[in-house]
Amino acid sequence: MEHTKTPYEEIGGADAVRALVEAFYPRVQAHPLLKPIFPENIEPVMEKQTLFLTQFLGGPALYTDRYGHPMLRARHLPFPITPARAEAWLACMHEALDEVGITGPVREALWARLVMAAHHMVNTDQ
Fold first, then answer.
1. Does the keyword section mention Lipoprotein (predicted)?
2. How many C-beta neighbours within 10 Å does residue 21 have?
3. Which tens digits make up the pLDDT trace of 57-84?
């Protein structure tokens, strides 16, 4: 039986996920809408995002192993996430995907899932 690659494998595994996270968070920290809801020390956030994206893309369940079920919406409820912030987050991720060279069908599938997730996080209009 032939093994179908996961998106995690298709983009290049752990190194690609780390590169994506490292391309993404400087953009988040520089974005006027996003900077206020992220801590000054972004390293722990980057580590959690690396674990989460690894799992989200079909790699090892590193996030769940360390923190339990992701419960994305519940974990983000303490932060005011507006539609504009969701779009800003997506814009930063779009640029990061470009920077690390994730293209083609795997990017399209990943992008669709990220858009859904970002919009699901919205918890306030203002």
1. no
2. 22
3. 999 999 999 999 999 999 999 999 999 9
Indicate the fold that domain 7-121 takes in CATH. Globin-like (1.10.490)
For tokens 């590193």, the residue is 62
Task: Give the whole-angstrom CA distance, residue 12 versus residue 83.
Answer: 31
Quote the Cα angle for 106-23-89, to 5°: 75
Q: Is 70 helix (H, G, I), strand (E, B) or coil?
A: coil
Side chain identity at 17, as an amino acid letter? Answer: V
- Measured CA to CA in angstroms, residue 42 lies from 19, 22, 48, 78, 80 at distances of 15, 11, 10, 17, 18
Any idea where the domains of the chain sit in the sequence?
7-121
